[in-house]
Write a structure and sequence with these properties.
eight-stranded parallel barrel, 11 helices, alpha/beta, globular, TIM Barrel, binds phosphoenolpyruvate
């Protein structure tokens, strides 16, 4: 059985005192949960703070982006090696905000995926369609294309050390959650696609759902057979919401 993973994506939010208060409020309740992995993916400047606060707890931490390059003249960029200096377990790759606002294409996302793994960090690979693509009936083609770019570069076995997050773009930060059935259909498609290449990889692969998940919608989403937890944006900034979402992902919850 796959262990569910709930990861918070703080996006560009926080401050030293706000982070401290949020971490203080989530560490002990989440520490009592069983059968669920929890993590927070934070802005780069707060990695040291989060590492100091979370080491020795049950909550892992990570970043929201990295460079596809190992090192060099890339002003403003952050490498996988730098993230591992702060013991990051995870890095979000190909978030729709990066794909749309920063023009990250499938090839760049795939290169970032490879760079993360080369640095010993588990990539959380985001895939998902826009509303226009859903309405045009091409959701599966879009998700397949995004996955194929990574599989072509890294090989299907690379998904053994990765997480996939299905995040329909129309559901991110909009308050519109996919229904459990809509999400399950795409998760099953993703698992089926990987399964056609490597059954063992597909069975182990953690596929998170992301898109306006709240405490009130988490349990129903997580009850679906191919939904293995969530990537949580806005609700991860509210301690009680994030704790409740992690609680809903516990084994047998
Ligand atoms: C996200 O940023 O990955 C996300 C899912 O955001 P939200 O939960 O706010 O929709």
């Amino acid at each position: 059985m796959r262990k569910k993973l709930v990861a918070g994506n703080w996006k560009m939010h926080g401050s030293l005192p706000e982070n401290r208060a949020l971490l203080d409020a989530i560490i002990s309740p989440i520490g009592t949960f069983e059968g669920v992995s929890c993590a927070v993916c934070v802005p780069f400047p707060y990695l040291f703070q989060v590492q100091s606060a979370l080491q020795g707890t049950s909550i892992a931490w990570g970043a929201q982006n990295l460079s596809q390059h190992e090192k060099g003249a890339y002003t403003g960029e952050v490498s996988a090696r730098m993230l591992s200096d702060f013991a990051c377990s995870y890095v979000i790759i190909g978030h729709s905000e990066r794909r749309s606002l920063y023009r990250e294409d499938d090839k760049t996302v795939a290169a970032k995926f490879v760079a993360a793994q080369a640095g010993g960090i588990t990539p959380i690979l985001c895939v998902g369609e826009t509303l226009q693509e859903r309405e045009a009936g091409v959701t599966e083609q879009v998700v397949a294309r995004q996955l194929d770019a990574v599989i072509e570069l890294a090989g299907v076995k690379a998904l053994d050390d990765a997480v996939v997050a299905y995040e329909p773009v129309w559901a991110i930060g909009t308050g519109k959650t996919a229904t459990p059935e809509q999400a399950q259909a795409v998760h099953a498609f993703i698992r089926g696609k990987i399964s056609a290449l490597a059954v063992d990889v597909a069975q182990k692969l953690v596929i998170q759902y992301g898109g306006s998940v709240k405490a009130s919608s988490a349990a129903q989403l997580f009850a679906m057979p191919d939904i293995d937890g969530g990537l949580i944006g806005g609700a991860s900034l509210v301690a009680e919401e994030f704790v409740a979402i992690c609680r809903a992902a516990q084994t047998g919850a």
